[in-house]
Amino acid sequence: MNKIKIGIVEDEVIIADHMADILLKLGYDVPEPAGTYAEALQMLEDEMPDLILIDIQLKGKKDGIDLAQKIRDEYHTPFIFVTANSDTITVERAKKVNPASYLLKPFTRDDLYTAIEICIHNSSASKSQNGEALIHNYIVNNALFIKEGPQFFKVKFSDILYLESEHVYVNVHTLNKTFLVRSSLQDYLQHFSDKTFFRIHRSYAVNTEHIQSVHAEYVSINDLMLPVGKSFRDLLFKRFNLG
Question: Minimal CB count within 10 Å: which of 64, 128, 146, 232?
Answer without folding.
Answer: 128
